[in-house]
From TrEMBL:
It comes from Rhizobium giardinii. GO terms for molecular function: amino-acid racemase activity; hydantoin racemase activity. The keyword Nuclease does not apply. Belongs to the HyuE racemase family. It is an enzyme of class 5 (isomerase). This is Hydantoin racemase.
Length: 245
C-alpha cells in the first residue's frame, strides 16, 4: 500500500512529525509518502490560512495521484481542502478531524477535542456537528499558536495538559482527541499519563486509509465528489484548470 501524508502548510518539521506518527502505526506492507505544500502559509490557524493553503495542497494531491498513491491523508486537523481533494483524487482522501472523531466514537460516548487557538475551536465545533458528533464532542482551545508546538521551551505542553485535565473533570470526557497534527507525537505519553484513550488524527486516518485500500474502496464519483468539469481558470489558477487534471 502507498499512502500520501500531505502537510497543507509549508513547515517541513511538521510534515516530518506527521510522517513519523504515520509510520509508527502503518502496517508492514504500507509505504508512507510524506509531502509538504510548496506554497501557502507556514501554519493553518483559521479560515484565511486554510483558504490560501488549498492550491499547494491540491498540487500535491494531483502529483501523488499521477505517481501511484492509493490513498491520501491531509495532515491538518481543520480537514483543510478535504472536499476539494476528494473531488480531484482518484483514491480515497481522509481528514484528521473526521478520522479522529470516528475513532473516538468507537471508544467513548463523550470526548473532548483539545486544539490550539480559539479561532480553531469554533471551526472544529462546526466540523464536529457536520460529521454528526455535535452531541458527543466538546472542543477546547489551549491558547497555543501552532508553531509553538515545535518549541519545547514554549510551555505549550503545560497548556495542553491543563485543558485535558479540565476536560476530564468539567466535560466528563471519557477520551481526548488531539486537535492538531503538530500534537501527533504526544498521544501515547498523554494516554499513559491520564489513563483514557488519547486519539491522534494522523494515526487514526492512516489506519482507516489502510482499511479502505484493503477493501478496494474509493471515493464515489457520482454526485458530490464527481470529477470537476473541464473549464478555463484565469490568472495564477490556470494550472489548476480541470481540463489539465
Amino acid at each position: 500500500m502507498r499512502i500520501l501524508v500531505v502537510n497543507p502548510n509549508t513547515t517541513r518539521s511538521m510534515t516530518e512529525k506527521a510522517a513519523e506518527a504515520a509510520r509508527a502505526v502503518a502496517g508492514p506492507g504500507t509505504e508512507i509518502i510524506a509531502a509538504t505544500s510548496q506554497m501557502g502559509p507556514a501554519s493553518i490557524e483559521g479560515h484565511y490560512d486554510g483558504a490560501l493553503a488549498l492550491p499547494g495542497l491540491l498540487a500535491e494531491i494531483k502529483k501523488a495521484d499521477a505517481t501511484g498513491a492509493q490513498a491520501a491523508v491531509i495532515a491538518c486537523f481543520d480537514d483543510t481542502g478535504l472536499d476539494a481533494a476528494r473531488s480531484l483524487a482518484g483514491f480515497p482522501v481522509l481528514g484528521l478531524c473526521e478520522s479522529a472523531l470516528v475513532t473516538a466514537g468507537f471508544l467513548a460516548q463523550r470526548f473532548t477535542v483539545v486544539t490550539t487557538l480559539e479561532r480553531s475551536r469554533v471551526l472544529l465545533e462546526n466540523l464536529s456537528r457536520h460529521y454528526g458528533f455535535g452531541g458527543r464532542a466538546k472542543v477546547r482551545a489551549a491558547d497555543i499558536p501552532v508553531l509553538e508546538l515545535e518549541d519545547p521551551a514554549s510551555g505549550a505542553l503545560g497548556k495542553l495538559r491543563r485543558q485535558i485535565e479540565m476536560a476530564l473533570v468539567e466535560d466528563g470526557a471519557e477520551a481526548i482527541v488531539l486537535g492538531c497534527a503538530g500534537m501527533a507525537d504526544l498521544a501515547y505519553s498523554l494516554q499513559e499519563e491520564y489513563g483514557v484513550p488519547v486519539i491522534d488524527g494522523v494515526s487514526a486516518a492512516v489506519k482507516q486509509a489502510e482499511a479502505l485500500i484493503a477493501q478496494r474502496l474509493t471515493t464515489s464519483k457520482r454526485g458530490s465528489y464527481a470529477t470537476p468539469l473541464a473549464k478555463v481558470y484565469a490568472g495564477a489558477m490556470g494550472a489548476f484548470a480541470p481540463a489539465a487534471v
